[in-house]
Amino acid sequence: MKKTVQTIRKSKGKTLISALTAYDTLTAQLASRADIDLILVGDSLGTTHLGFDTTVEVTLGHILHHTAAVSRAKPDSLIVADLPFTHAHLSPSETLKSCATLMQQGGAQAVKIEADQTLGPTIVHLVSAGIPILGHIGLLPQRIHALGSYRKFGKTQQEADQLLKDAQALQEAGCFAIIGEMIDPEVTSRITESLDIPLIGIGCGPHCDGQILVSTDMLGYPSPFHPTFVKTYANLEKTILEAFQTYAGEVRNREFPNSQQS
Questions:
Q1: Nearest to 82, CA basis, from 57, 104, 59, 49
Q2: What is the pTM of this model?
Q3: Adjacent-strand bridge partners of 83
Q4: For 20-61, what is each residue's pLDDT tens digit?
Q5: In angstroms, rounded to a whole number, what is the distance separating the alpha carbons of residues 9 and 24?
C-alpha cells in the first residue's frame, strides 16, 4: 500500500514508523519491497556518496538528481527530499521555489527542513502552498560549522525547553511529522508525548513514534563516521570487498571469463 503524508501523520499512537535514507533507484526499490514507510533522500548523500566532509557542500542540484533517481523506482514508501544548506533561510518565495523544484522535477512527495521555531512563518507559507513539510530538530548537521562538532542535545534544561518549543512551533506551523536527531532520550520522551504528530528519532533512544537510519550505516558500508546509536544489520563492506577481490584475481589469472561466459 502506498504510504502518504496522511499515512505517516495518522500513524501516531498506532504504528511505529520505519524510515531509511536512499539515494538511488535500486535502494529505493529494495526499501519499498521491505515495506519501509518513508524514504529520505537526505543530504547525508554528501558524506556517504559524494565524498564531502559535511552536508554543507550538498547543493539543490545534488538533491534533485538523487530524488529523481529514487522517484523512478515508484516506491510505495513516502519520498521525502532534504532541503539543502541555507535554502530554508532565503526569502519565503525563494524557499518555495526550491521546494517546488524538488517536487515538480524530482518527484518528491514532501520536503524535510532542518528548523527551529524561527522558521515557523516560512513553513506556514510552504504548507499553505501545498508543500508537505517534515521538520528536523536537535542536531542540525547543516549548522556543523557553527556548532563545531556533532553532539547530543537536550542535556541542559535550557536546551530541553528550547527543543520542546521548537517541536511545538513546527507542529503549529503545519509539519506532518518531525525528525529528532541526537536528543537526550528523556527529553525525546517528553517531546513525543507533547506532540499530536509523529516524532521520528535518530540517535534519540526508543521513546519515539518511529526510527530513521542512514542506509549505508546500517548496511555496514565503509564510512569515516561511526555513530554509536547505529545498529549494523549487514556487513556489505566485507561482502563487496571480497567480491571485488575475487573478480580481480580471476581476471588476472584468466579464470574469468571462461569458455561458457565468453
A1: 59
A2: 0.97
A3: none
A4: 999 999 999 999 999 999 999 999 999 999 999 999 999 999
A5: 25
- Residue 37 CA to residue 76 CA, distance in Å, equals 8
- CA angle (55, 34, 49) in 5-degree steps: 25
How far apart are alpha carbons 241 and 65 in whole angstroms?
Answer: 27
Rounded to 10°, the helix 120-128/92-104 angle is 50
Residue carrying the nine cell digits 519565503: 92
3-state DSSP: the chain helix, strand, coil percent, rounded to 5?
Answer: 45, 15, 40
Give me the catalytic one of 94, 114, 159, 181.
Answer: 181
**H-assigned helices in 34-128:** 45-48, 60-71, 92-104, 120-128
Distance separating alpha carbons of residues 224 and 53, to the nearest angstrom:
9
Beta carbons of 122 and 92 less than 8 angstroms apart: yes
Amino acid identity at 217:
D
User: At 107, which helix (H) or strand (E)?
Assistant: none
pLDDT, tens digit (0-9, with 9 covering 90-100), for 122-161: 999 999 999 999 999 999 999 999 999 999 999 999 999 9
Q: Does residue 181 have an active-site annotation?
A: yes
Cβ atoms of 37 and 17 closer than 8 Å: yes
